[in-house]
Amino acid sequence: MTPKTLFDKIWDAHVVNHITDGPDQLYIDRHYCHEVTSPQAFAGLKQRGLKVFRPERTFCSPDHNIPTHDQDKTIADPVSRHAVDTLKSNASDNCLTYYGLGHDLNGIIHVIGPEQGLTLPGYTIVCGDSHTSTHGAVGAVAFGIGTSEVEMVLATQCILQPKPKTMRITVNGKLRQGISAKDVALYIIAQLGTDGCTGYFVEYAGEAIRSLSMEGRMTLCNMSIEMGARGGMVGPDQTTVEYLRGRLHSPATGEEFDKAATRWLALATDPDAKFDREVAFDTANIGVRVTYGTNPGMGIDIDELIPEPTNESEEKALEYMQFTPGQPIKGTPVDYVFLGSCTNGRIEDFREFARVVDGHKRSERITAWLVPGSRSVMKQIVEEGIDKILQKAGFELRQPGCSACLAMNDDKIPAGKLCVSTSNRNFEGRQGPDSRTILASPATAAHVAITGHL
Q1: Percentage of residues in the chain with pLDDT exceeding 70?
Q2: What is the phi/psi pair of residue 285, to 5°?
Q3: Which of 83, 85, 170, 314 could share a disulfide with 280, CB 3.0–4.6 Å?
Q4: What mean pLDDT comes out for the span 16-29?
Q5: Domain residue extents for the chain
Q6: Is the distance from CB of 433 to CB of 407 less than 8 angstroms?
């Protein structure tokens, strides 16, 4: 038999029909819905007199438009309220699982999927959201789709999709102390560019990747989209198995789980499998990373100087960010800190933030928004006493949601203000009209929060 990559094995096992000189008809194991990209899809179904074909495979949770305070009250913004209400009614009309505001399992869809064991190795997973790639961390083929494709999946549990090329990114060596998955992701994107993986599905490999926790792998796979990849994944190993053990929707513990774990661990790229492209990096070159421009590829080590722009777009980015070539980025005064999002809103991220700020006080110049990725994360923060550490240091914990990752709810960074954010994108106005964003790890964000500068 011809050796296969992990991606090829999962993809090929889900092909219902191959269209000659066209896309594959791919069966979808798990479909996630939020309030932003699903309304038109449900409206299309209704217009055609259809119901969701396999409702037990679709899970819904509002996350983008929801406020991160007073969630027990009616959503004040009429546009956001309508979006959330529409998702609720669509889920009800089609007998879909719905985790609404206040539900114990509510949260950012890309956080609750893995933490509930809905996301499992070997699955095909889609959602009308580009950062669906997060779920590839468990060894799944997961990717974002458009609204018309959401309708297609709702109606048929299948999707027409051209098969991407394959790419392996290997990170060799041990990560230096204090270097996180976010630093690794920002380093790789800076090296390859925001279009460096366009048309490819990436598998991450190497000693550094294997050393990452599941939360770290999710951060890395989440950021795959920022270099143009269709998705990112990490092959299942014992770390994967232990993370999924005992999760709500994972196979039951005991014999059933052990059988599933054996299947998961067998999911691996064959030794002689050929990728369409191979790239390797060394951990010795990866330091604490931050962005300085208006896309995630414009990043440097914290000790480096702002580089000279190489084109008009970079010149415009520096002007927008109010940075000058040759200027050190270390020491830059900051106004806001945001900890959260589907990139860094998990319990490990809050543990790291708390570790850094413990025994210190929030800088008076900093407004900090600390937003758990889910109700489960929020509960764990309280159970571990992290909330007490944060409170003592002068920080307030908000309620779960996408929050300041994007300007679709009340949490908007004011115009001109500079925010160090643990989210995934730093586009112009991404966090609010005319706001400025520096992407960084939770540890870096924590240092900023207590010092007031990078």
Answers
A1: 100
A2: -95, 0
A3: 170
A4: 96
A5: 1-287, 291-451
A6: yes
